[in-house]
Amino acid sequence: QVQLVESGGGLVQTGGSLRLSCEASGRTFSMTNMGWFRRAPGKEREFVSTIKWSTGSTYYADSVRGRFAISRDSAKNTVYLQMNSLKPEDTAVYYCAATGAGASGAYYYTLPYNYNYWGQGTQVTVSS
Questions:
Q1: Each residue of 92-102: pLDDT tens digit?
Q2: List of residues 6+ apart from 5 with CB closer than 8 A
């Protein structure tokens, strides 16, 4: 099992920045990819970004590319999501996820059902 704990959410004005953190514990050696998803009120869960644990290669949703940056600290078993130029439409609960899948291709890791482990979520609210 892998346990994930997110932190760093909060309230920020349009154009502001936040950094989310997700610390993994447990059988972290089994992780191959970690990702961030979000769910806005009344909407389905949406892919935000993913990172391959071994190489650090990244992939982003079009809606956040150029504004958000995902990174990881292997020594701390932690993945980060730096969010800049925030917009009201970024308001959502943000979830960290991890998978041990070995599939190639970024699209696989944009699908939430391909992740085995999930954090509890952290609220991000962007005021206009």
A1: 999 999 999 88
A2: 22, 23, 25, 119, 120
